[in-house]
Every structure is written in structure tokens, then in C-alpha cells.
Write a structure and sequence with these properties.
This protein is mostly helical. It has helices spanning 14-50, 58-66, 72-106, 118-133, 138-159, 167-191, 193-199, 212-231, 233-239, 243-248, 253-275, 281-293, 297-322, 330-347, 349-352. Helices cover 76% and strands 0% of the residues.
Length: 354
Amino acid sequence: MLVESPPEPSASPGPPIAAAARPRGRGSLRTAGLLLSLGVLLLVCAASIAVGAKPLPLEDVWHGVFHHSGTDTDILISQVRLPRTLLGLLAGLALGVSGAVMQALTRNPLAEPGLMGVNAGAAAAVVTATSFLGVTSYRGHVWFAFAGAAVVSVLVYVLGGGRGATPVRLALAGTAMTAALYGYVNAVQLLDSAALDRLRFWTVGSLAGAGLDLVADVSWFVLAGAGLAVLIARPLNAMEMGDDTARSLGAHLHRTRVLAMLAVTLLCGSVTAACGPIVFVGLMVPYLVRAITGPDVRWILAYAAVLAPVLLLGSDVVGRVVARPAELQVGIVTAVIGGPVFIQLVRRKRMAKL
């Protein structure tokens, strides 16, 4: 008589349970890290309002922001420092999110709006509008910035080899376009002294002179671009595994690429028109946060939206401290910080083989 033997117990029941627990543990770590990053951002915002030619204690900052009574300190906070801080928040968010989108779209860890020529294209268009067409308002500049950013994005992609582009070829194409466009910008400014006076701080990237009206205008474009980036995060995740895999997962590649470039154009064009071209923020933050988030674009976008403003506002505070009572423009500080990071990335062995 045949007797059915009972199934043998699994020799190691532990690993499946551990494997199921690992994603939850990593998700908790990422959530805790994001909350910690938000706390750091609040501290940096407070420092941005408190630090300047006239240092302010934190109680005055609190009073000026939440209990405005019309004192000189309150007016300084509400009309000068608070708008500057809000513009830095928006600019940092835009640059961080656009850098994350570009790195996912091109599968290139060197992709960044400043290095890929996007900011330079927007800057060249704004300078052209200012010098030759007499456009001086943000609402006029922003449409030229969008056009310049979009055209240069396409040119860099084509010059880099299109679908066959490698990270290094795209970086070289972006660097070449950036050098040519900044040469044009400098030539126009030298030939037009009025434009040079108006744009000399703007061309290196500056948060100074912001008002609440400008912040309100910028916010619409930044929020639209960031919302679009969130909507395409899932197909971008699929595209990072290769086009064939993305198609098999149901991603619409052409539509995703178009929407991604539209998001980058909205984010970079609006911020460049307001602050000038600021480089390396979109490179450093998305690349570094991958150590915490892993390759998931959704988490990278969340972290970049928080930590890129930390970097930008922190750089702005440093610029006000090192040159007090004058100030060093934020674009110069981010370039000084970002240059060595970029060199280190290029020197990595795996990057040299691309």
C-alpha cells in the first residue's frame, strides 16, 4: 500500500520572511530620512531669513513672518528676506527635480540642466530679449526662456547621438553648447552697456532683488513642472531598465520623453528667467540621494525637491557670510561646490568606461 509522505518542511523558512521585511525596512528608512530632510530645510529657511548684512535673532524672524506689525525689522523680513527665501525654495526645487528627471530620462548620472546647456539656452534667450527687443519684465522673459531651454535641449540630444547617445557624449555636447551660448551672452553684454548693468548679477545666478510678485509668477510654472514630473515618475522608472523592458511594462516611451522635456523646460525656463543660470544643483543632489533612495525615481524626486533647496539656500547664506557686508552671488558658490563633485564623478572608473 502506498502511503503519501508529508511534504518536507522548508530547510530555511527565514529568508522569505527577511526578504519581505527588507522592503518595509528600507521604506521606513527612506520616510525617516525625508522627514529629517524637511527638518533641515526648515532650519536653513530660518537661517536664510536671519542672516544678512543685518543679522536678526530667531524671535524677530518668527515675529516678522507670523506676527507682522509694520516695524522696520518686519518690513525687512516681509519685503526682502522672505521673498528671497521663497524664491530660493522654488529655484532649488525646480533645479533638483529637473536634474532627477534628466538623469532618469537619459540614464546619465552626469545629466543636469546647467551641464546639458538647458540653463544656458534659457539665459541666451533672455539676454537676446533684453538687449534687442527691450523686454525687461519677468512675464516677458519667461516665454523666451522656455523657448531657449526647449531648443537647446533638442540640439544637445541630437548632437549627443540621439537614442544612441552615451553619458559622456551628452555631457560633451552640453558643455560645448553651454560654452558657445555663454560666449554669446558675454559678447552681447559687452556690446550693450545698459544690458550689462541690468544683468551682471543675473548672469551668474542670484536670488537678490526678489519680490513677492516675482515669487507668485514663478510658483505657477514650477508647480506645474514638478507636478508633471511626478506624473511621469512611474514610466521613467521603467525606462531606466531599457527601452525594450519599458515597452514590455506598458510605458509609452515617446509620450514620456515629450512630457519629461516639457517638465524640464517649465522648471528650468521659469527659474532661469527669475534667478539666472545656476549650475550643479541639479547634478549633485539627485546623484547623491540615490545612496539613500535607491533607483526609484519617485523617491529621488521627493528627496531632490527637499534637499536641492537646502543646498541652494545654504549656498546663498554662505555667500552672504563670506563677503559681508557685501555678498557673493549664489551661482558662484554652487559652482565652487559643484566643480569638484563633477570632476570626481568623471574620474570614477565606471564613468570613464561609458
